[in-house]
Amino acid sequence: MSNCKLSVNINKIATLRNSRGGNNPDLVKVALDCERFGAQGITVHPRPDERHIRYQDVFDLKGQIDTEFNIEGNCQEQKFVDLVLANRPAQVTLVPDAQGQITSNHGWDTVKHQNYLQDIIATFKEAGIRVSIFVDPNVEMVEAAKTTGTDRIELYTESYATNYLHDKEKAIAPYIAAAEKAKALDIGLNAGHDLDLNNLKYFAENIPGLLEVSIGHALICDALYLGLENTIQRYLYQLK
Ligand SMILES: CC(=O)[C@@H](O)[C@H](O)COP(=O)(O)O
Ligand SMILES: NCC(=O)COP(=O)(O)O
Questions:
Q1: Beta-bridge partner residues of 189
Q2: In this structure, are residues 191 and 203 in contact, taking their beta carbons and an 8 Å threshold?
Q3: In this prediction, does ipTM exceed 0.90?
Q4: Cα separation of 114 and 192, whole Å?
Q5: Which residue has the least CA distance to atom 1 on ligand 2?
Q6: How many folded domains does the chain comprise?
Q7: Domain extent for 11
Q8: CATH for 87
Q9: Engineering a disulfide at 39: which of 20, 34, 94, 133 sits with its beta carbon 3.0 to 4.6 angstroms away?
Q10: Best of 11, 69, 75, 190 for a ligand 1 pocket test (most atoms within 8 Å of beta carbon)
């Protein structure tokens, strides 16, 4: 039995809600239903333009969620730092997004941004929030993550998901190396981005010490066909 938790990213529920301006679907209700259907965490990624998750959503969700609340985002935005400190989620995941990016597309350069990361991570840890930082599957970046003081790293899995379709052993090789380095350095390990029902099982089976995956886009797409409860159950099954 795997110890890996499934955190459902509900950004795309907010995208749908915002498209009409009302409150349908109700983001808080969906989050609570995800928990009821077995999700072990809820992830949101508020972006400065609030194109999906709004800052107010974070306050609304915080009081309601029973499982692990994970807020992802760009800590170079002071508004994001203030939001996280005001809500004190179980975990904050720091992602180096640029303004206007369509989605997250790279991890931290933990060598170049070492001093900055040390300071911001200490700020969140002093507030009692577990910190994870988004990194590419690169051993050098994992090594330098250790001295930032982060509790965990989240491996950016886009290249795994893309290359899985052509050569899954080659696709996962850099992730195994990164995970082994994280384990040796006693850094907790999360992963996410473009994980789906096809590629998740192989990833979870082959990555040592995987603690959590956060999955949004594919899971919400699957729910259109399979229903949310059935979809969450199927993702959980991949992690068994
Ligand atoms: C950090 C990460 O991997 C992202 O996948 C993210 O949380 C998704 O963000 P969007 O929903 O805005 O594409
Ligand atoms: N951290 C990754 C995440 O929350 C969801 O990414 P995706 O499944 O929407 O690509």
A1: 153, 210
A2: yes
A3: yes
A4: 22
A5: 192
A6: 1
A7: 5-238
A8: 3.20.20.70
A9: 34
A10: 11
Report which DSSP code applies to 186. T
Among 6, 8, 45, which residue has the most ligand 2 atoms within 8 Å of its CB, making it the best to mutate? Answer: 45
- Rounded to an integer, what distance in angstroms lies between the CA atom of residue 23 and that of residue 26? 5
Active site residue 45: yes
In tens digits, what is the pLDDT along the chain, a chain of 240 residues? 679 999 999 999 999 999 999 999 999 999 999 999 999 999 999 999 999 999 999 999 999 999 999 999 999 999 999 999 999 999 999 999 888 889 999 999 999 999 999 999 999 999 999 999 999 999 999 999 999 999 999 999 999 999 999 999 999 999 999 999 999 999 999 999 999 999 999 999 999 999 999 999 999 999 999 999 999 999 999 999
Respond yes or no: is residue 106 known to be catalytic: no
- In the chain, the amino acid numbered 55 is Y
Cis check for the bond before 25: say yes or no (omega within 30 of 0).
Answer: yes
Q: Tokens in use for 85? A: 């400190």
Give me ligand 1 centre to Cα 193, in Å.
7
Q: Tell me how far the alpha carbon of residue 12 lies from the centroid of ligand 1, in angstroms.
A: 10
User: Which one, of 128, 133, 15, lies nearest residue 75 by Cα?
Assistant: 133
Distance CA 134, CA 93 (A): 7
113 noted as active-site residue: no
Instruction: Kindly give the distance from the C-alpha atom of residue 169 to the centroid of ligand 1, in angstroms, as a whole number.
Output: 25
